Amino acid sequence: MMVTFPVFLAFILMGMPIVFCLGVAAALTLHLTTSTPLVVLPQRLYSGLDSYTLLAIPFFIGAGLVMEMGGIARRIIEFATSLVGWITGGLLMVAVVAGAGLASISGSGSADTAAIASVMTPDMRRRRYNIDFAAGIMACAGALGPIIPPSIIMVIIATVSGQSVGRMFLGGIVPGLLMGLALLGACYLHARRNPGIYKDAEPFSGARVRRAFIAAIPALLMPVIIVGGIVGGVFTPTEAAAVVLFYGLVVGLFVYRELTFAMLPKLFLKAACTTAAVMLIIGTAAIFSWLIAVQDVPGTLGRFLRATSDNALLYLLFVNLLLLVVGMFMESIAAVLILVPVLMPIAVGFGVDPIHFGVLIAVNLSIGLVTPPYGICLFVACSVTGRKVMQVAPHLGLPLGAMLLVQILITYVPDLVLYLPRTFLS
After folding, report:
1. Does residue 352 form part of some domain?
2. What mean pLDDT comes out for the span 166-172?
3. Which of the listed ranges 21-25, 288-292, 323-327 does the model predict with the highest average pLDDT?
4. What's the rounded mean pLDDT across residues 138-150?
């Protein structure tokens, strides 16, 4: 432990890619502190990837790309516009509603942010919105992706901790919806505080809602297939990912007809490259996690914390603060694979439900996706809108404050997370 973490942190500060930080730190630790042959490294990398549950990741990544390229994202955004676009500052709320809708399909915060920002930014500019605040809201809306099922991060958390992916998915529904409502409240407060900017409200039209809903029905069925299929026991989360990818291809090719067979090679190549990058991080982090377990870091830290305090609420506060800081500087998948094996056993020892704790980790890391300096959703939103991170960052206070309120609420009211898993998958 005295070698592993200092070497890892040194590489992080040097700006090395996270894969090399994990792999080289693990190799150096193994070589300097043990007599274990280095051949164990590729063995551990392979065993870290040898999981049926992880098969869901490439399918969800593919579904996110189909959503973006096949017209599915645009239909969901148009439906969200018909629902809340008539409110003052309504396009900000549209971004949040669309973010929740897209999160229920792709499971990737960066993909959701890119889809929302690319579709909505031109209209926001035309209506003279505050683009800096709008970019922050779109980043926060995209960050709902790791919370609302399906979620790639939740798949990995469940795999690492040995929990049910289906229960983890159900546990994320209420926190995700609460997060969306909190962001809607932040949008409303901002619009009311700046009435001179947001004068774009249009009359509500039931006919427009009806037309947009009918057009969006095939897209809206995707989350129903995922959650309904898992809860109903029709298929496993991994099978649900494959089914929703196939369904998305059918909708994009034959219903909306915005996806063509000529586009499929590019789509699958992009999905394969993204999956390869994710899997490489998972594999090298598995080596790192194995070393942490061998060095008994969870046991040592657990004994220290119990000697300090036996209060589970204080432990959850400590975890929240730790994950918020980690989420600011580290890629979410790597953070999960490094920290969950350490923090989860301690949480269970304090009597915290593992599903509650897993969802709490996902929520904290989703907040990290929009916090400077390395929030990936913030980077994507700034890239699409053409703004700089330092221009957008001062406008993040209100939406981040709303997200933190929900984080505190679900931390100390675990039934908000556990009600649905206990009801449907007891």
Report:
1. yes
2. 91
3. 323-327
4. 90
Q: What span, in angstroms and rounded, lies between the C-alpha atoms of 250 and 260?
A: 11
Q: What total of structural domains would you count in the chain?
A: 1
Residue 41 lies in a domain: no
Note the pLDDT of residue 144. Answer: 92
Whole-angstrom Cα distance, residue 95 to residue 97? 6
Cα separations (Å) of 335 from 172, 356, 379, 388, 399?
19, 18, 18, 26, 23
- Mean pLDDT of the 397-413 span: 94
DSSP per-residue string spanning 290-328:
HHHHHTTHHHHHHHHHHHH---HHHHHHHHHHHHHHHHH
Query: 422 in helix, strand or coil?
Result: helix
CA 138, CA 370: separation in Å to the nearest integer? 10
User: Which residues are within 8 A (CB) of 121 and not within 5 positions of it... i.e. 6 or more apart?
Assistant: 131, 134, 138, 384, 385
Give, as one character, the DSSP assignment of residue 151. -
**Residue in 1, 82, 59, 39 with CA at minimum distance from that of residue 278:** 59
Separation of alpha carbons 134 and 411, rounded Å: 28
* pTM score: 0.85
For residue 65, give the amino acid letter.
Answer: L
Check residue 261 and report its DSSP letter.
Answer: G
- 405, part of any domain: yes
Weakest mean pLDDT among 3-12, 38-47, 90-99, 165-174:
3-12
Q: Which domain holds residue 136?
A: 5-9+11-29+49-424
